[in-house]
C-alpha cells in the first residue's frame, strides 16, 4: 500500500475517535451532573489541556531552556499582578531576548 493510503486510514481513525469522544457521553449521560467534584473537575479540563500543550512549547521555543523557564516565571508573575495579555506577552518576549543575549 502507498503512504497516502496510510495517511487516510490514520485520519479516519482519528475522526472516528473524536466522534466517539463527543457522542458517547451524550448517549450515556441522561441527566445533568450533580456531583460538585465532577463538575469542578470537568470545568478545569480545558485549561489543563491547554497548559499541558503550551508548557513544553514555551520551554523548547527558545535557544536555551533556562530562558524559556525564566520567561514562563516572568509571565506568571506579570499575570498574577493583573497585567493584560499583551503586556504579559511583551514581558515574556523581553525576558527571553535579554537572557539569550547573555546565555
Highlighted features:
4 helices
- How many domains in all? 2
Q: Beta-strand level of the residues, as a percent range?
A: under 5%
Helix content: over 70%
Distance between the termini: 49 Å
Order of helices and strands: HHHH
**Major sheet: size, sense and barrel closure?**
none
Structural class assignment: mainly alpha
Q: Which spans of ≥5 residues are poorly predicted at pLDDT below 50?
A: none
Global shape: flat
Quantity of strands, as a count: 0
Summed over residues and divided by their number, the pLDDT gives a mean of 90
Cα gyration radius (Å):
21 Å
Report the total helices. 4
Task: Provide an overview of this structure.
It is flat, with a radius of gyration of 21 Å. By secondary structure, it is mainly alpha-helical. The protein has helices at residues 3-28, 36-60, 65-80, 85-102. The mean pLDDT is 90.
